[in-house]
Amino acid sequence: MKPLRDLLKHSSIYAIGQIMTRIASVLLLPLYTNCLTPADYGITAIMDLTATILSLMIGGGMVNAVTRFHFESESEEQHDRLWWTGLTYLITTATVVLFPLWLGRHVLSGITLGTTVTNGSMYYSYALATVFVQIAGQFVDGYLRVRKWSGTFVLISLGRLLVNVCLNVWLLVGMKMGIEGLLLGNLLASGVHTLVLLGVFLKTRGGYRFSLPLAIEMVRFSAPLVLTAVLAMLMHEADRYILRALVSLDDVGVYALAHKIGFAVNTLCLLPFASIWAVAIYDIDRMPRANEMFARVFGWFVSGIGILLLGAALTVHPILPLLTPEAYGPAIDLIAVILLGFFCFGLQLQFEVPAMLAKKTGLLIPGSIAGVAVNVVSNSLLIPRLGLWGAAITGVLTYSAFSFTTLFMCRGLRRIPYPWTRSTLTLAGFCSSYLVLRFLLFPHTGIIGQLAFSVVCCSLWTVVLFGREGLEWWATRRQLATQPVSDAPAPEAVCEDRSLCRT
């Protein structure tokens, strides 16, 4: 059971960093929404999308590739060659891709932001530099996760958060630099963060080694992951481009805030698990009855993530109006639908396991293609009719197509007995609970009452879904603690193959 203990232990440590980061985001929300108009928020959302797509095109999949090959290497010399080769590839590719874009940043601004944003080229100067710096940092982040140095990872991440918060407050409030201040603060904080990570990397790895054949092999492994990552990001945020073409930048900003909150909550719930899950699946695969263990983790995943997202969907109603100006008010009711979409998206982490274990990452591409196709068609049909609600509903449809197409493609590799009946009933119960509280109880209850109902609802679901297993675990622990230690000698091992036993 060591892989499961590691999964719980490191997920909990990673969760500390995510909790602190999201708490800071909530506390800074009044600052950002008062210093930035909805139109400003729309501009930053579109730029974030463009920067993320570039990051994924350059570095997406390489960390997964190095992680996979790391566990096949036995010596530290092979590990040195592996990690240095991956880092060299990323820095070289980033330079080749980003420098021409920096030269053409005026064109890039016109395409993504439109001609009405006069400072777009300057904004992209900061954004492209940040992408370059973050690519190396994200790679070393992956190195810390593989080494299971979760404490070091969280400590460095919290340091970056502190620097970023201080810079953003100073540049937005003190210097009143608006969008430029936000971008400059992100660049400086990312630079400090990456330098510290590279210092850890240089101190703990051997001398520089590079292998072109190894780089080619890792690129072959990561190429499908790059495509799926870019497509996944388009599923997440391509609606920003469509919204900009069909609605005002103010509406884009309102939707971006709703999506940012939903994405932050999803990240808080999902990233600690995902950070160690990419490593733990290989440990679980070596366990006896691994398929049954994967099925159990799936059931826990559905229940645990569902409770957390339900709690977030409920508590946002009393809390968000206290943090944001009235101009952002329409974002409140969008968040629950966005969170439902992210729940569907998270299922893909479970469904992709057979492909990752079998090194058949190409099977992940159809799910991403299906998701993007549904996203484009649904947004084009629903946004003109339903506005921002059309974009939120499209998220649910998109992520469902993405995850379940992945399941369909991967299920032939490995028949994992997922607990479908229980999981479906659980999801239906979560949705029903939200609707009852939101539309029957909340309209007649104040802020304190809404928070109390939210806590009671999530607590009841926790007892129902985890109470029995929790009691069984506690009973087992007590039994082991009270069981007397036997003085009898340990039984001799039984040799399974008698032809190999010594007489």
Main pleated sheet: none
- Rounded Rg: 24 Å
Helix and strand sequence: HHHHHHHHHHHHHHHHHHH
Strand content of the residues, in percent? under 5%
Helix content: over 70%
Count of extended strands? 0
User: What would you call the shape?
Assistant: globular
Q: Average pLDDT across residues?
A: 84
Specify the oligomeric state: single chain
Kindly name the structural category. mainly alpha
Task: Work out the helix count.
Answer: 19
How is this structure best summarized?
The chain has helices at residues 2-35, 38-59, 62-70, 76-103, 105-113, 120-146, 150-174, 178-204, 212-237, 239-246, 249-285, 290-323, 334-346, 348-351, 353-358, 365-386, 388-410, 420-441, 447-482. The protein is mostly helical.
Would you kindly provide a written description of the structure presented here, covering whatever features stand out?
This protein has 503 residues and is mostly helical. It has a domain at 36-210. The chain is 82% helix and 0% strand. It has helices spanning 2-35, 38-59, 62-70, 76-103, 105-113, 120-146, 150-174, 178-204, 212-237, 239-246, 249-285, 290-323, 334-346, 348-351, 353-358, 365-386, 388-410, 420-441, 447-482.
Write the layout of secondary structure elements.
Elements: H1 2-35, H2 38-59, H3 62-70, H4 76-103, H5 105-113, H6 120-146, H7 150-174, H8 178-204, H9 212-237, H10 239-246, H11 249-285, H12 290-323, H13 334-346, H14 348-351, H15 353-358, H16 365-386, H17 388-410, H18 420-441, H19 447-482
Helix pairs in contact: 1-7, 1-11, 2-4, 2-6, 2-9, 2-11, 3-4, 3-6, 3-9, 4-6, 4-9, 5-6, 6-8, 7-8, 9-16, 10-16, 11-12, 11-13, 12-13, 12-18, 12-19, 13-17, 16-17, 18-19
